[in-house]
TrEMBL record:
<dbReference type="InterPro" id="IPR012338">
    <property type="entry name" value="Beta-lactam/transpept-like"/>
</dbReference>
<feature type="domain" description="Beta-lactamase-related">
    <location>
        <begin position="24"/>
        <end position="136"/>
    </location>
</feature>
<protein>
    <submittedName>
        <fullName>CubicO group peptidase (Beta-lactamase class C family)</fullName>
    </submittedName>
</protein>
<feature type="signal peptide">
    <location>
        <begin position="1"/>
        <end position="18"/>
    </location>
</feature>
<dbReference type="InterPro" id="IPR001466">
    <property type="entry name" value="Beta-lactam-related"/>
</dbReference>
<dbReference type="InterPro" id="IPR050789">
    <property type="entry name" value="Diverse_Enzym_Activities"/>
</dbReference>
<dbReference type="Pfam" id="PF00144">
    <property type="entry name" value="Beta-lactamase"/>
</dbReference>
<keyword id="KW-0732">Signal</keyword>
Length: 154
């Protein structure tokens, strides 16, 4: 019993802080007129997730953990940072074809794709298109990617 009481107090404290953060985030959404958001972060090995507001303004559809938002070009910055960190750690060779790390099924019909390196992707010389199809469509995950030009030719 002595061990259970501190554990229950800790769980209650964590729940109270999470509720306070959720209320603060909801107030910020309203103040800034943002329909909805997802926030996920990890601290000391614990992942905290918030899904707040509406998935689309003017609808009643709530944001859930499964809601997909378009992030536009934000992914480019995250990918560049991650690739360069992996390179610094000696885990990614910028000039080694990416196909040696992972054979992307969507490029299976493009033999020239076997020469694409991380450096080409980071410098926008891979020949990959900006958009293959609408990424929100169900077919996007399986649609073939077609190179717009020969990798490293520009």
């Amino acid at each position: 019993m002595k061990k259970i009481l501190p554990l229950l107090f800790l769980l209650y404290s964590v729940a109270a802080v999470a509720q306070q953060h959720q209320q603060e985030l909801s107030a910020l959404l309203e103040k800034e007129q943002v329909p909805g958001m997802q926030l996920v972060y990890t601290r000391k090995g614990e992942t905290i997730r918030y899904s707040l507001g509406l998935a689309k303004a003017g609808t009643a559809q709530a944001v859930t953990a499964a809601t997909t938002f378009q992030a536009a070009s934000l992914g480019k910055v995250v990918l560049a940072y991650t690739a360069l960190r992996l390179h610094d750690q000696g885990r990614l060779n910028l000039d080694k074809p990416l196909a040696t790390y992972y054979a992307e099924p969507r490029l299976r019909t493009q033999p020239r794709a076997a020469t694409i390196t991380a450096r080409m992707v980071l410098t926008h010389t891979s020949g990959l298109p900006n958009w293959a199809e609408n990424p929100l469509e169900a077919s996007w995950k399986s649609s073939d990617l077609k190179l717009k030009y020969t990798p490293d030719s520009c």
